[in-house]
Structures are given as C-alpha cells and as structure tokens.
Amino acid sequence: MNFERLGRRGLLLAACATSVFAAPAFAQQQATTAQDDQPVEEIIVTATRRETALQNVAVAVTAIGAQAIESAGVKDIRDLTQLAPSLQVPVSENSGAVTARIRGIGTQGSNPGLESSVGVVVDGVFRARNGVAFGDLGEIRAIEVLRGPQGTLFGRNTSAGLINVTTKKPSFEFGTSGDATFGNYGLGGLGLGITGPLIEDKLAGRLYVTARARDGYMNVNNGTARTDSNDTNYYAIRGQLLYTPSETFDARLIVDQASRAEACCAAAVWTKDVRVPSTTDILNKISPNALQTSRNLDSYLASANRTYDQDIEDAGVSLEMNWDVGFGKLTSLTAKRNWKRTAGADSDYSGADVVYSLKSEGAGSEFDNFTQEFRYAGSLGKLDWLVGTIYSKETINSTVRFRTGTDYQAYIGGLLGPALALANPALAVNPLSPTVTNTQLAGVVSTWQSILGVTPANIGTLAAGGGQFDDYEQNAESVALFTHNIYQFNDDFSVTLGLRYTSEEKKFKGSYKTQGNTACTAIENRLGLDAARNAGSLAAVVGAICAPWMRSGLDGMDHRQEKSEKEWSGIFSAAYRFAPNINTYASYSRGYKAGGFNLDRAFSDLQNNVVTSIISPGVGNRTVRQPNTSFAPETVDAYEVGLKTQWFNRALTANFAAYHQTFENFQLNTFTGISFVVTSVPEVVSQGVEFDYVLRTPIEGLSITGGAAYSMTEYTKNLGSASQANTFLGQNPNLYWLPGGQLTSSPVWTYGSALNYERSVLSDTAKFKAYGDFRTITDTITGSNLDPRKTQPGYTLINARLALSTADDRWTVELWGRNLTDERYAQITFDSPLQGDAPALTNQPALGGFAPRVVNSQINAFVGEPRTYGMTLRWNY
Q: Does the N-terminal peptide bond of residue 277 adopt cis geometry, omega within 30 degrees of 0?
C-alpha cells in the first residue's frame, strides 16, 4: 500500500473539512450527533417518493438503516448482498463491470451500450450504470432495495428493481464524525464528516471526505516474478448545503468528486484446456512459465505480463428544491454527472505477450449525464396524488484499443501448427518440440497463407502492436411523464395506480481502424473480406488468423444509426389491512429497459429475422454495408402478492412476497472467447417467494434479522434450433445451453441472517457490541453461456464485528472480519481469449445436422475477495 499517498490525501481532505466548519464549531455550546437516523421502532421508506412506514407500503422492500449499515461495514453496493437475500452483485473484468441482480435478473458485462436492469439512485439522482454507482457511498442515512419493476417513479432502467440510497442531510446542530481503519493486505482508510450551521436556522452544511488503500489479493505471475492485482486505492469528497429560508421552501445542493487508481482485475484458471497440446502448453513453450498448468483458485494466482491498471474519475452536482405551494408540494431536481474510466489490461490473461490494451492510449469509456425532474404531489380527500416529468440527456464515448503483442504470431502459429497435417503431413509442426523455435511457429502463419493461395510476394505478418482501434459514441435523449396515485377507500383498503410514458431517441456513431494485419489482409485479398465464410473446411484456420480485431471490413466506415422508442410502464396494486399489524397487497406492474446499440465491433446484424452478413459473400466483391447493431427494449410484466405482519407487540416483524415475472427481449451480453455477442433472448421467466424477518428477542440488546429467497429465473425452453436461421438459436448457436436454464449468477436458494447484540458494561460507562452475519447461496452457473463447467458450488460467507464504545457512542473501537472461513469462490467465469473452443453448435453432416462441437476452452474466473480483518476507530460528536 502507498502509505505516503494515502497520508497526503487524508491530511489534505481532513484539513479542508475542518476549515469549512471551524467558525460554526466554536459557536456551539454542545456537540450533538446528526438527527437523520430513523428510530428502530418504525422504519420509514421512500419507495413511493413519499415517506411511508415500511409495513404500510405495497412494495417488496429490504430497508437497511444507518446502524445496520455501520455494523455490517457497508461501503459500496457490493456489500449489500449480506443484508438483502434477493440481491447479487458480481464483479468481472474491471470496477466498471459491476452487475446488480435482483430476483436473478441483471445486465451482465461492461458493454456501455447496455443499460442496467437494476437501477441505482443516490439522493434522487439516477446513476447511468451499476458500475458508475460503484464507490464509497459516504454517510448513509438509509438504503432501500426495491424488488420488482420500479419504472413508474424511478425511470426506464429499473425493470428488475432498484437500489435507493439516501445520505445524511446537513444539520443545524454542529456534529463531527470519523473513522480510521487498518487491516490485512496493508489496508488503511480515513474518513471524516462535519456538519453544522453556516447561517442560523437558514443555511447548514455537511462535508464528508474519505481515502482508502489496500494491496491486491491476487498474486500475479508474470513469467519470472510476481506482483499483486485487485487492490484498492481511492479518495472521495462530498459537500452539501441545505437552505431553509422559510417553512415553505428548502433547497439542497450536493457536490461530489471521487477518484480511483487501481489494478483490476486479474483472473485465475478455473478449468484447464485438456487437449494435447493444450493452449497452456503452447503458451509456456512460447514464453516459459506463462501460465500455470493446473487450477489455481485457492492460491489467488493469476498470470499476466502487463498490468491491469485503471483510473476512474467520478463527479457530479445536484440541486433539489421543494416548495409548499398550498395545494401540494412542488419538487425540482437538477443533476449533472460525469464518469470516466481509462484502463489497460493483459487481455490474454497469461504471461505471454499475446493481446493487450494500454491505459495511456485512452482505452475505456465515459458517461456524461444531465437530468431535470419536476414532481408535484399533494392530497385531496382520500386521494394522495403525484404527477411529474423528467428530461434526461446522456452521451457515451467508448474507446477500444486492442493490440497484439510480440508473441501473437508465434502463438497463432502454435495453435495452427498441428493442423498443417490436414493439408500436408510433411508440413505438420509440433509446437511442443524442443527444437521448434518461436520464429518457426510464427512461420506457420505464412505457410497457411500459401496453402490458402496467397502468392509469396503477398505473404503478410501479424505484426506486434497491431489490432483494433475503434471509437464509438452514443447520444440519448428521453422525456417521460408519470403519475402515481393512492386512493384510500377507508382505513383498511387502498388502491394504487401509476403510469409512465417514456419517449426516447438514441443516435450512434462508430469509426473503425485495423492495423498490423497484413497476414489477414493477404487472405482477405484472396478470399474476400468475409474470408472465413469462403474458406470451406479451413474456416477455423482463417478465423484464427483473421480474428475480429484483425478484420478490416469495417475500416474507414462512417457508421451512423438512430432509433426511437415510445413505451408505457406502470403499476396497479391493491392493499388491505386485516388487522392493525397484518397488511396484504397484490400488484401488477410493467417495466421497461431501453434498447440501444452494441458499442463493440460487429460483423452481422442484430434483431433481424435472419442474422445476415454485412459483407458480400463473393471473393472479388468488396461491397460492405453498415451493420444494424441496435437491439430491442426489454420489457417485463410482473405479478406479486405480499403479506406484511408484526407480532408480539412488534417484537417480531415477518414479511412474505411471491412473484411471477415474464421478461421479453431480455438483453444478454456474452463473451465467446474471441468477441462479445449482444443479443436479445425472446423470453425469460422469473418466479419465486421471499421471506424476511426482524426479531427483537427477550434478551435485552439482542436482535436478529434474516431472510430467504427462492427464485427460479429461467430462459424459456422454446428458443428454436440452429438449423432455423430465423430463431434465437439459429442466430446464436454458441448459446445452445440457454433453453430452460437458470440465469447466470442466479442461485435458486439464498439464505441470510444477522445477529446484533449490545449491552452496557463497566458500570454503564461503556457499551459492548457484537455483530455477525452469514449468507448462503446454492449452486450457480457463473458464465453467461451457461456452460456447466462454469458452475460455482454453493457456499457460505460469514462476517463478524466486535466493538467497545463509550456510553454515549462518542468513541468506538471495533475488531472486524469478513469472509471469516476464507471461502474461495468465483464471481464470474469466462472462456479464456484464444484458448480453446467455447461451446457452439456447428453443422456436422456426419451427425445429421447441427450438433455441439467438442468443447475444450480454458476457463478463467474473477475470484471473490479472501478473508480480511482489521480494526476501526470511530468518533462521533
């Protein structure tokens, strides 16, 4: 860990925070804590854009208060999984590739053209993607995990659910709080928050600053030495002003900025390529000790010859104003946000220099978002009404810089060497022969060009430093009108009706450039720009030399597309109270997730009845047209019933929900080992039951919370066949495992529980606190193509925290541990680039048609964090 950098940041941020509130602090006669925390006896949620008691809201909600968040050590949305059974948050190739899943539904991968199925809202402001919302959440007042479509009030990209985060507001009483954390893997963290009045009863402020650093837990083998990856290194600052000039008006201004400079994310071998020779054998022949020869998940061992480095800059400003205009309350919420990630990576996940990207060349993506929302809410007799409108504008820039390394041609030659025997046994090259050199392996590419008919004068190379240099831009504008109304027929029965109309336009622009591909160019000159299609039995050979990042068919194209969508979403629910503490509800809701464009290189159309090549099949014909890379919006029809109960003078709260959801055009992003495929699955069905409880035991100071979720989230069985070109499998033969399969990272069962205990000690001068939680999930398939080899067996994660505080909680010292049993598990698995054949259906006449080809791809895994432990000192005045 870089203590010097953390120290400078921490001191600078602390100095800034202290200076802002120095004068108001001295004016206070007595320090008090912030006033935001809700009392334990009644949990208030804002799931309907109104403050409502949790037990009275007709929505399935997991509400997490400030105390529970602190006890569980929640810093970002990934940590919420221990407290919300229906939530999964796996992370894949970078910190921007965070996927939140609720009830098994989420949008996998880091393709920026795909919007999220689970929305994240922080203080009313929608974050563009789950990965954009990843980061330190600051001084949290409460978090609500809303299950099921939430589009009526929260927007188009909440078809599976919503994570609603509210932070603490400025207080008109002075208060300060902070924490210092140290732990294994060189963890060090500082945080400081200060709040207080700037103008008495008129203007208050709050400032929160934090910095955190930790060494990486992945041991990276780079051939001759090891280093670490998957570290933590960030700082964040968040300032607020609250203006209350009168009882009828208030305004809240929030400005925040965060920066991350981290190495993320290395991957370990999950399943080895078992061929002889295997891709591991060839890589180790080209570059000694390039890749481990066995599964190495337990040792957190990865391989790379280049760093997984990334920089993330995140900044935003929002202004919320509320007017009490007599007949209702008018709210205006204006927000502007920018998020940018630049990253470099060893894209072959080995110690050989095969393919990579460089952060210095600007590879990455950027989101620029502006939103303006108006809401007008009030009541008229038995009607509680709300109407509103929102305008949003989003610009995405995605930069792809994918280069080939110095070992690239030798590696491709090693893969194709044994296959020379198909053409001429005398030409066969054994890539593992001790006498074969890298130069000879590289020469295999030239030999294959000759076999394909390329004349000696035109023989080309796969030059180091060549590859794919693409730039994509997507601009989106949307306007929505919405209303959400609750009619209270009597004290026990109410009906809710909500509607939202969304109009959206998106424009896409792409430019393509390929360089260093003279070997592929020579083959394209011979066989056409769609060379593999015209290579007959040698299609696999041509496909290896002319991989997607080496094909020139799109070069120089001014690729532009536009699409527009107009969609209705909404909710109808009825709630009935059978007894003072027994409430039921039933609801129907329709959700909508916007379509868009695949911001990656594509050589075929999407969403057509037939997937068609964009390149004329003829050898001499050079006609190339623009691909249609658009994909359809995702919609869902959801039905839900719920029961919310409290027993024994509210000592026990027990809530139940059952649901059935049907998704159409479910958006899926899949990595095949050589490229990402974006497609829409015709139908996905998610159905299940959920249970959660809070028990305040007769033992003073002891409470237990927990829950369980059963979720069958499956692709429908009827997805066509590979022989029918106008069906899903006809267009996506690599996804033949999908029909009837449980979705990625979607366990059928999830269980969790947390225990919280507090008692006075040392003659009531101090308090002892103990907290522990566990979360158990059943087997899951962690790859989006549902390859059974990617199954992660069920596992349990256990966390604990012991604390001793002063009686007034002004000082607390904590000992904590996460993943105490040091469980080793995969978050996401994937087919290693260029390392074997991933699952696909191919036409095999000897078998009577399409059948699965032999699958021998090596699989890598992004591994969950190991056991961590440490100590935290907190203060609160």
A: yes
Q: Alpha-carbon Rg of the chain, whole angstroms?
A: 28
Helix axes 518-527, 438-451, angle to 10 degrees: 10
- 197: part of which helix (H) or strand (E)? strand 187-199
CATH 2.40.170.20 residue window(s) in the chain = 3-403+473-511+552-618+635-876
Question: 2.40.170.20, 2.40.330.10, 2.60.450.10, 2.60.40.790: which CATH number matches 3-403+473-511+552-618+635-876?
Answer: 2.40.170.20
Question: Band of the pLDDT at 789, cuts 50, 70, 90?
Answer: very high
Highest mean pLDDT among 154-158, 526-530, 560-564, 850-854: 560-564
Q: Return the percentage of the chain with pLDDT > 70, whole number.
A: 93
Residue 379: burial class (beta carbons within 10 Å; 0-12, 13-18, 19+):
middle
**Sign of the CA dihedral 300, 306, 308, 311?**
positive
Q: What is the mean pLDDT of the chain?
A: 89
pLDDT digits (tens, 9 = 90+) for 525-568: 999 998 988 898 899 899 999 999 999 989 988 999 999 999 99
Q: Is this model's pTM higher than 0.85 or not?
A: yes
Secondary structure (H, E, C), 830-871:
EECCCCCCCCCEEEEHHHCEEEECCCCCCEEEEECCCCEEEE
CB of 710 closer than 8 Å to CB of 688: yes
- Say what the alpha-carbon torsion angle 32, 34, 36, 42 is, to the nearest 10 degrees: -40
Specify the residue for token string 């880091």. Answer: 110
Strands 161-167 and 175-183: unpaired
What residue has token string 């698995």?
A: 829
Region 476-505 average pLDDT: 96
Q: What are the pLDDT digits (tens) for 289-305?
A: 898 877 777 789 999 99
Q: HSE on the CB side for 61, CA within 13 Å?
A: 26
* β-bridge pairing 301-303 and 218-221: parallel
Residues in the chain: 877
- Pairing type for strands 232-246 and 203-214 reads antiparallel
What is residue 41's predicted lDDT score, i.e. its pLDDT?
Answer: 55
**Do the bridges between strand 226-229 and strand 268-271 make them parallel or antiparallel, or are there none, so unpaired?**
unpaired
CA distances from 469 to 49, 357, 371, 403, 833 (A): 45, 10, 32, 8, 18
Task: Report the run of H or E that residue 76 belongs to, with start and end.
Answer: none
